[in-house]
Fold this sequence. Notes:
Layout: H1 6-9, E1 17-18, H2 23-33, E2 37-41, E3 47-52, H3 53-57, E4 62-64, E5 70-72, H4 90-93, E6 101-102, H5 107-117, E7 121-125, E8 131-136, H6 137-144, H7 148-163, E9 172-176, E10 179-188, H8 189-200, E11 207-216, H9 224-231
Parallel strand pairs: 1-2, 6-7, 10-11
Antiparallel strand pairs: 2-3, 4-5, 7-8, 9-10
Organism: Streptomyces prasinosporus
Protein name: CBS domain-containing protein
Domain BON: 147-216
Amino acid sequence: xxxxxxxxxxxxxxxxxxxxxxxxxxxxxxxxxxxxxxxxxxxxxxxxxxxxxxxxxxxxxxxxxxxxxxxxxxxxxxxxxxxxxxxxxxxxxxxxxxxxxxxxxxxxxxxxxxxxxxxxxxxxxxxxxxxxxxxxxxxxxxxxxxxxxxxxxxxxxxxxxxxxxxxxxxxxxxxxxxxxxxxxxxxxxxxxxxxxxxxxxxxxxxxxxxxxxxxxxxxxxxxxxxxxxxxxxxxxx
Length: 237
């Protein structure tokens, strides 16, 4: 079944900042590269936060330090350097901890993360939390942009045909604004669960309305009598 992974749509040439990068350099990088935010990384290229334009335009009386603790930013500045108490760096204004995603996650999963956390971009990291790319909401939208007709054909081909090994017309499939409605009867209850789960993972699917029924509930244990009957050898076998 075809789904698009984050790794297929992410940008690998990522503009980053270090914790101590002066804020003026961050602002310059955002403008020169025409991006709305950039990851802040440590010496081992692990993501420790994100600086976005919204971070630069709102008051941030508290921010996370390199060790993840949160305290007023001015208390982390040296006291004996004139003017430094008024200075700002990427680490001072960044949002931390950063919300990240793996490259193998689907674009649907990444979209859920963005919506849940109210962010417009996600740093993409490997299994050791090192930065490998970045994905924006626009990247995800371009990846999942499908017409209702495209989605219906994908459901019939990938869910009914490939996943369940059924003829494409065995169920009624309707799609409206990305919402898939499945109607009809399948043999087993587990097939219903599989159909709904598989359809929900397709690119462009917003939700799945389950109007399916089943003939056999194969998720319920058989009674003693039914189990004995199922194990009884067939005459003449």
